[in-house]
């Protein structure tokens, strides 16, 4: 079962990961024919945007973004978490259902749920939640936030390389922004493309933004530079769409390319559910009465399986402590789902795709200020690992080899953690992690090194082995 991805500190000001680390890090396109159906879309790894009024089968793409993020609040997930004693709403709430149907939301009935018959385009699914995650990537100030606003109507803000790596773990596709008025590639353009390559992301659309600021000849010259830049990369052959996000020029073409270029991903609905936690919140206001306290909320994307209201779940690694002997101890958190939300839409069940808010009976102090970022729920088949061996580390000859004793930042799933290299032999390295991580053998990870006060992506590896930590048995 796959892992998670971490926090959002600025790599320019973050502390080194010896202590718990602050996470790392043209030719005019021919407009394709209009599609008959458009899947709901989320542009991944950060918070979802305010949705347009959905229809049962087709709706314009709604984006929540990856390398750019929308509002960083629980309300962005549509979360008004119920109290810890709340129960799943019953099917008899006819007034609510009538109101839902007027909004174009198809009814979800747990008593009739058959996961073997589910599909991302099932009306009861697509009318309520996004089914595809699309990220925006590219260099700073190249227009990631502006293009998201042009498509979805919601302004965002840039996030950092570390979080971009984390968000790539749940992306189904990506929009690569390249500013037409600057040379190509810029540093983060290369790093972000390398990151999605590490995450095996195959569906990329390149947006040559700010086309209104340059002459046609300059645009053609940069188009040639873009083609040279992507040659031999996972983006080779990707469409290059000239746009002006500020003037909303060719935004309709982007939407149609999203529909035509990025297919509906195959999802696994029958396996035990596994969700990667990207944000976590305490939705209680200061001064709330004890009886009004609501349980903690986790936000993220489901990797496989189906989550249901009233389902008991486990959060791993959970509460991490260091014993007097120096041994790390992990205690999983056991809780129950009391609500599920996708943007403002209440769900009875949630499937892979989009960003889901999970209200629980958990102590809200455990979810406050993103404390659960990088956790998994429910548990994977393997327990957390505190040390790994990697292979395939260096991706460029100009990057110096890993050295024993140096400090790195690792991105494993949605978790960002510091690591000290304790041994190196040929293409194998053994980093000791500063925090345990839930992962599996052969899972990919990204390696970043601190270079001139910045965390810079230097390569990738695969987990070959690790130390499995003992966890106490489930008390339930």
From TrEMBL:
Assigned EC number: 3.6.5.3
A GO BP entry: formation of translation preinitiation complex
Top-level taxon of origin: Eukaryota
Residue ranges of domain Tr-type G in the record: 156-263
Keywords assigned by UniProt, alphabetized: GTP-binding, Hydrolase, Initiation factor, Nucleotide-binding, Protein biosynthesis
Single GO term (MF): GTP binding
Signal peptide residue numbers: none
Record has GTP-binding as a keyword: yes
Domain Translation elongation factor EFTu-like: 295-365
Segments forming domain Initiation factor eIF2 gamma C-terminal: 389-463
Residue ranges of the region described as Disordered: 1-102
Family stated for the protein in its record: Belongs to the TRAFAC class translation factor GTPase superfamily. Classic translation factor GTPase family. EF-Tu/EF-1A subfamily.
Protein name (Swiss-Prot/TrEMBL): protein-synthesizing GTPase
Native source species: Miscanthus lutarioriparius
């Amino acid at each position: 079962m796959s892992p998670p991805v971490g926090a959002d500190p600025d790599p320019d000001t973050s502390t080194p990961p010896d202590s718990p680390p602050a996470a790392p890090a043209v030719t005019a396109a021919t407009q394709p024919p209009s599609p008959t159906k458009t899947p709901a879309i989320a542009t991944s790894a950060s918070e979802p945007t305010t949705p347009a009024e959905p229809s049962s089968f087709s709706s314009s793409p709604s984006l929540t973004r990856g390398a750019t993020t929308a509002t960083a609040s629980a309300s962005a997930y549509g979360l008004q978490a119920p109290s810890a004693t709340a129960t799943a709403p019953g099917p008899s709430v006819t007034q609510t259902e009538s109101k839902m149907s007027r909004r174009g939301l198809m009814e979800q009935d747990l008593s009739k749920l058959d996961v073997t018959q589910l599909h991302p385009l099932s009306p009861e699914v697509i009318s309520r939640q996004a089914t595809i995650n699309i990220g925006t990537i590219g260099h700073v100030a190249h227009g990631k936030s502006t293009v998201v606003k042009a498509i979805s109507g919601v302004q965002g803000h840039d996030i950092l390389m570390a979080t971009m790596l984390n968000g790539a773990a749940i992306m189904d596709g990506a929009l690569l922004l390249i500013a037409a008025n600057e040379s190509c590639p810029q540093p983060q353009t290369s790093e972000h493309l390398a990151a999605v390559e590490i995450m095996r992301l195959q569906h990329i659309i390149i947006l040559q933004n700010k086309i209104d600021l340059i002459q046609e000849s300059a645009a053609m010259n940069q188009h040639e530079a873009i083609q040279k830049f992507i040659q031999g990369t996972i983006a080779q052959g990707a469409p290059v769409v000239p746009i002006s996000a500020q003037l909303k020029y060719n935004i309709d073409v982007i939407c149609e390319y999203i529909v035509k270029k990025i297919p509906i991903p195959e999802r696994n609905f029958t396996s035990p559910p596994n969700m990667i936690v990207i944000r976590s919140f305490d939705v209680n206001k200061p001064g709330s009465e004890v009886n009004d306290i609501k349980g903690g909320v986790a936000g993220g994307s489901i990797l496989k399986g189906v989550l249901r209201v009233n389902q008991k779940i486990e959060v791993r690694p959970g509460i991490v402590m260091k014993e007097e002997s120096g041994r790390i101890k992990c205690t999983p958190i056991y809780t129950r789902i009391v609500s599920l939300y996708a943007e403002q839409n209440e769900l009875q069940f949630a499937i892979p795709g989009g960003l889901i808010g999970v209200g629980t009976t958990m102590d809200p102090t455990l979810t406050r200020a993103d404390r659960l970022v990088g956790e998994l729920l429910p548990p994977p088949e393997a327990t957390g690992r505190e040390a790994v061996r990697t292979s395939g580390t260096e991706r460029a000859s100009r990057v110096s080899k890993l050295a024993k004793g140096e400090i790195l930042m690792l991105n494993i799933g949605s978790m960002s953690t510091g690591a000290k290299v304790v041994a190196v032999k040929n293409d194998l390295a053994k980093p000791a992690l500063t925090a345990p991580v839930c992962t599996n053998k052969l899972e990919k990870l990204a390696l970043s090194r601190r270079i001139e006060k910045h965390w810079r992506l230097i390569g990738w590896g695969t987990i070959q082995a690790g130390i499995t930590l003992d966890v106490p048995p489930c008390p339930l």
